[in-house]
């Protein structure tokens, strides 16, 4: 989905041109005074800063026009020790350029415009380049894309069925139902058969392991019983030895 850069959230960068106008409210006179020495057009420099008379170098890269306007007013009030903060308005005079290359009619540099999308950018560059090789290449790209889609779709179905098999395995079930989201797919019988084989093998292996553990438990219990009898016998010998002593 193309990303749309709305004017409201446009972030400034190097080469953006701004029109700045500053006015100060004169409390005593009750009138506004324009700052003609500051008003004018400015360009964001390569370092991402904006140089404004009296305000100095202000960081502009990544900021909006409203944030820059507030920063200019604060800087002027602070540096000139003004009682009233000057009101600054900042408007876009010219957006920084964007660059497009590849299979377009006119690759190169173009001025940015609000709400620019990839499709609009291609249109600005004259559209997709068409030549004698474009048709066959497009056909190859379509075949490749179709193949990649088929592989991804097959993996998707296998993963859905595998999830159902794992859920059944965890619940101790001997089988599982085909998920409704993939019902009717012609590839299902083979995929379900594969997963059922895995489920049966897993449960068989688990059963054998449990039986082996039961056998081991029986052997250990026999050894414990034998050791207990041995302990009793040894204790009797200790008692006899004490009596003889």
Rg, Å, rounded: 40 Å
What is the average per-residue confidence, as pLDDT, rounded to a whole number? 84
Strand content: 15-25%
Give the helix/strand class: alpha+beta
Given the structure, what is the number of helices? 4
What is the rounded distance between the termini?
Answer: 97 Å
Roughly how much helix do the residues carry, as a percent range? 40-55%
Count all strands and give the number.
Answer: 8
Succession of helices and strands? EEEEEHEEEHHH
Q: Top keywords for this entry?
A:
single chain, 245 residues, alpha+beta, two-stranded antiparallel sheet, 4 helices
Structural commentary:
With 245 residues, the protein is of the alpha+beta class. The protein has helices at 65-80, 118-124, 134-170, 188-244, and strands at 17-26, 31-34, 40-43, 49-52, 56-59, 87-94, 97-100, 108-111. Strands 1, 2, 3 and 6 form a four-stranded antiparallel β-sheet that branches. A hairpin with a 4-residue loop joins β1 (17-26) and β2. The radius of gyration is 40 Å and the shape is elongated.
Short description:
This protein is an alpha+beta fold. Helices cover 48% and strands 17% of the residues.
């Amino acid at each position: 989905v193309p990303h749309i850069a709305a004017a409201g959230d446009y972030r400034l960068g190097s080469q953006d041109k701004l029109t700045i106008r500053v006015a100060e409210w004169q409390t005593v006179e009750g009138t506004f005074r324009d700052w003609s020495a500051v008003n004018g057009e400015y360009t964001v420099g390569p370092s991402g800063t904006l140089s404004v008379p009296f305000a100095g170098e202000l960081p502009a890269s990544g900021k909006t026009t409203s944030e820059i306007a507030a920063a200019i007013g604060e800087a002027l009030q602070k540096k000139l020790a003004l009682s009233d903060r000057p009101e600054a308005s900042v408007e876009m005079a010219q957006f920084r350029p964007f660059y497009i290359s590849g299979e377009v009619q006119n690759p190169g540099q173009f001025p940015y415009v609000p709400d620019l999308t990839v499709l609009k950018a291609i249109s600005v560059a004259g559209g997709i380049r068409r030549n004698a090789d474009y048709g066959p290449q497009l056909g190859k790209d379509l075949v490749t894309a179709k193949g990649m889609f088929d592989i991804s779709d097959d993996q998707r179905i296998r993963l859905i069925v595998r999830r159902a098999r794992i859920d059944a395995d965890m619940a101790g079930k001997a089988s599982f139902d085909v998920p409704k989201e993939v019902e009717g797919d012609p590839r299902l019988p083979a995929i379900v058969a594969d997963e059922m084989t895995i489920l049966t093998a897993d449960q068989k292996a688990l059963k054998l392991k449990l039986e082996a553990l039961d056998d081991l438990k029986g052997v250990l219990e026999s050894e414990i019983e034998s050791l207990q009898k041995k302990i009793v016998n040894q204790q009797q010998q200790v008692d006899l030895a004490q009596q003889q002593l």
